[in-house]
Each structure stands twice: as structure tokens, then as C-alpha cells.
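Q: DUF8093 domain-containing protein, please. Structure only.
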Amino acid sequence: MLIDISNIKGLNIMDVYDLRREHVRPKEFENILSPFFVRHKISNYFYLEKSIAASSGGFDGYQLKRIYGLKPPFSNDMSRQGEEYFLHNSIDRGYLVAVEHFGFERNGINYPFFIAENGELFCVNENHVDDFFVNFILGAFKSSVLMYGKPLPTRSNYVPVTKDFGPGFWRTLDDDYHALSNIGKMIINRATSMGDEGRVFMSEGKDFMHTTRDKIQEWSPLPPELDEGNRSLIFRRSVIRRYGERREIHQSYLESDDAWTQDGKSWQWIPGVSDEDFEFKK
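A: Structure for DUF8093 domain-containing protein:
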């Protein structure tokens, strides 16, 4: 950490890092502030100064110095103007970032990054930040994940929606039945049901016992036929995933409890999964 500015009046709890030299844990990336806010905050309280000691705790031959009293005359000093430009450029390109833990209420402007349910980091509003900034942060995040592992997802009242990420539901694409394996199991079932006189094979659920399939589902935007009330509720409660993300759920055909039948049992695909399955925050 280059400097801790948590005790300065007018600033929230915020740490400043040079991502080219320092490792930030993956979970911290969701709290990286927008460059606009960082430029404003740091410029009001700090300035850059060349220093031979900058190799330990500084960056590129500079150190961040706290402003006491009058601010150095950037507007009249070409050297100071160059240093201020260098500072702002480092912030805009994502080299110098501020991580704020207890600050603004999260939205798409002040906190530009969000961690999806699978631990993937994404930018919630690329129109407000530079492409180089986004790509550099995402690259640093990947390196951090390799070192520390995937983080838990962001939990917030703010619901990000981009062309690639957002709330939604699991839509079934296909049921992949394991044909060769299932034929073998049905042959065994046939052998055990030979004594059932007068019954046609495959007329009851037990003839398919222990057969398996994979239910293949894809994360998709909320269906348009949802009424406004349900859409609003699901929108707020849904987890955030990448659209097009797929999952496969392995199911077995077994007899299980069923409160809707007379004998309390029925043959079902276990675990039970709806063809349209919603996933909510825990």
C-alpha cells in the first residue's frame, strides 16, 4: 500500500495502491473507486514529489506527499503541472488505484467494478471509464486470482446490467440422456421385472430406475412475459451472472417422496430442477 489516507478529514477509509508493484486481494477489486473520484480526492490532499527514497513506497521515482497549508502552485509551475498530469494519468490508466471500504453507496459511477456469482470481475459501466483502465484492472484481477483464488461475489442493493452480465434465470437448452449407459440399466431393470405378469415393460417408472441425464441450462435475461411486479422482485433478488454461462445438472431417475400422490411416492428426476430456474442471493 502506497499510503493510508483513512485518517484525513474529509476522506473516507481509503487505501492507495500501485497495481504494477503491489498485490491486492481479489475481493478488494470491487471497492476500487472511479478515477474521477480518485483524482479529486488525491489532488486535494496530496502532490507528487521526486525522491531518491521513492523506490521504497513510491512509484516511478515519485512519492505522494501530504499537502499542509497552501497547495503547491501547480498552475504557475510547469514542473508541478507535469507532476500533476503524471499523477492523473497514472490514476486514469489504472496504475494507481484507491480502494474504499466504507464510502459511497454503490452505483455504476463511483464503483466501476462488480464481482459476479462465479467470481468473475466485470466493469458495470464502460462508458464512464477508459478502456485501458478497465483492461489493466481486469488483468491485475486475474493475476490476483491466480495467487489468492476466486473471491466471493459482490453483495449490494445496486443491480448492475450490461450487455454481458446481469440478473436473469437458468433456461433449459437440452436434456442429454446417457443412451448407452441407460440401455444397460434398463436391461437390468427388465431382467428384474420378468415376473410381473401381464405388464408391458416401460409402462411404469421402475423400468427406468437409475437411468441418468444431464440437464443443460444457460443464464439468460429475464423473460419478457414476466409481469412488472414479479420482474421487479426477481430483478432485485437475482444473483448476477454472465449471460450465456452454462451449467449441467446430473440427474438420476428414482422413486422419491411426493405429497401430491395417493401413496406419497412417485418416480422423478433427482435432484429436481425446473426448466426455467431462478437463482436468488443467499
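A: Brief note, in case it's useful. Residues 165-277 form one domain.
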